[in-house]
Every structure is written in structure tokens, then in C-alpha cells.
User: What shape does this take?
Amino acid sequence: MFVPRPETAGVLSAWLRRHQVAVYGIAVALALAVAVARPGAAPALESAVEPTLAALLYVTFLEVPFVRFRAAFADRRFLAAALALNFLAVPAVAWALTAVAGLSPTVRLGALFVLLTPCIDYVIAFTDLAGGDAERVTAATPLLMMAQLLLLPGYLWLFVGGQVARAVEAEPFVTAFLALVAAPLALAWGTELWAERSARGERTRQRLGTLPVPAMAVTLFTVVGSQFPRVRASLREVAAAVPVYVAFLIAMPLLARAVAGWLSMPPGEGRALVFTSVTRNSLVVLPLALALPARYELVPAVVVTQTLVELVGMVTLSRVVPRYLVPDQRNSAS
Assistant: This one.
């Protein structure tokens, strides 16, 4: 990937951020075209999903100084709000939406599977792109990962029965956290230390600052291109879950905004709370869905459908949240 000189990095980075929605739209359109014209390319694209996600998180973490990360981890108010929304409010909303929608048992299981697990990877990038406090979301990821690992079987047992809950294994969660969160975070901190001690390191850090938007575009391309054939094959059955996912994308930002206002959070913190409450862990949950017994063969397609709906929703929310839902204080006062 092309990395510009430090003197042009700032200008290019600003341009990319101003036009990020157009960049993402082009990436998704190209991915859909490839998925329709060359469905055989899906396995190769799927193998690239995790590396591109890891690269995306690495360049995103570089924009979160370590000192600010430590301060965010000490913010117990935000951590408590994020945990309460994700593991008290979200289960109630997910249960209500899937019950009202009248989904078949298998489709409902797939929807609950993904809605009950908060995102621990690209939520950080979208929070950052929306002008939110990405370091707070970063600090919350270990707690969110551990909590969903412990609570998902219990919620599935409560909502759909114990037989399915016993099929959930911990290994995919732990592996994804190490590969997609811990390793990029450690590499970013190492780069930050290099930048503090070396002029060459600082130049490299500045150049890498142009990559979050291109990295997100590549990630969108690989995810959509690899997973769309899966959804297309079961479109009629899984389409029933789409209204549930759309309703979730509307309900949770409004609820998180209300909580942020009640706690008098500043805009950046409020935006972070919105994104961590609405973004789901579909890419990590997918291996769990694939490991379910054969009678649940539609569950992976239902999970992938949420990925596609959410990607569109996140691009939209990255503009809507800072402009209208959680604007800057000076804008809201005018």
C-alpha cells in the first residue's frame, strides 16, 4: 500500500476523511460486483478478512496515544455504562425485536447469536472516524470480550434453550481477541515508543496516519466480497432478519444517546458509547455459528446478513452521530 511523505500525509489524511463515505461506497460496490461476477473468489477474500482487520486496527490504535489509553481505562463511569448497555439493555432489545418479528426458530437463533455479542474490533475504527473517544472503546474491549464469553451461553439458554448454549465454545473468542485486538495494540504501542525516540519513527507514524480510511475500505471490500455469496444462496430465508437488524441500528444509538445525556458525557465520550452499544461481533461469532449442528445450517447466513446490514449502518452512523445525534457542544448550542 502506498504511504505518502510526511509533508503530504496531513493533507491526504484530511482529504480522505472528508470523502470517506464515498470511498467506502466505492469499496462496497466493487465488492458486490466481484461477488456476483466471480463467486469463486470468496474463499480467497475470506482468508484476507482477519489480516485486513488487524491492519485496520493497527493504524487506528496509532491514533490513540498510550497516555490517553491509560486514562480511558480508569474511566469507570464509561466502562460501567458500556457494560450495562451491552449486557442489560441489548439483551432486552434483542429479545423484544426477535420476538415481535415472528422469526423462525433457526433465524431467531442466528439473530440472537450476533446481537448479543458486542464488537471488539472495527468498532474502534468507526468510533474514531465519527470523532469519538476511540481510546475509551479500546480500553473496554478486554472487558467486553470476557463478558460476552461468559454471558452468551447463559443468554442463549434463557432465550432459546440449553442445548444450543452448550454448543458455544470459547476458543474462537480468545483467538480473535489475541489476533485482532491484542497483537495490533501491542504493535501500535511499539511504534509509538519508536516515534518518541526516533525522528525516523515519527516520520513513519505520520505516514501511517493516512491509512485508516484506505484500510477500512479494504476491510469492507474483503468482508462484503467474501460473505455476500453465502447470503445470496439463502436470501429468502434470512431476509426476515433484516428488519430486526435495522431496528436494532436505530434503537440502540437512541438509547445510548439517552444514557450519555443522563450521565452528562462530553460529545466524544457519548459517541464512543453509541458505537460500542450498536456495533456487533459478527466476524468473531461466525466461526461459532459454523460450528453449530447441521440442523442450524441457516445460522451462519443469518449472521453474515447482519454483517452486511451493519456495514451500511456504520458508514451512515459515522456521519449521523457526530452531526445530529451527539454533535459538538458548540454546534448543539447554536
Q: What stands out?
A: The mean pLDDT is 85. The first helix runs from residue 6 to 18. The chain has one domain: 6-328. Residues 153 and 166 are 7 Å apart (CA to CA).
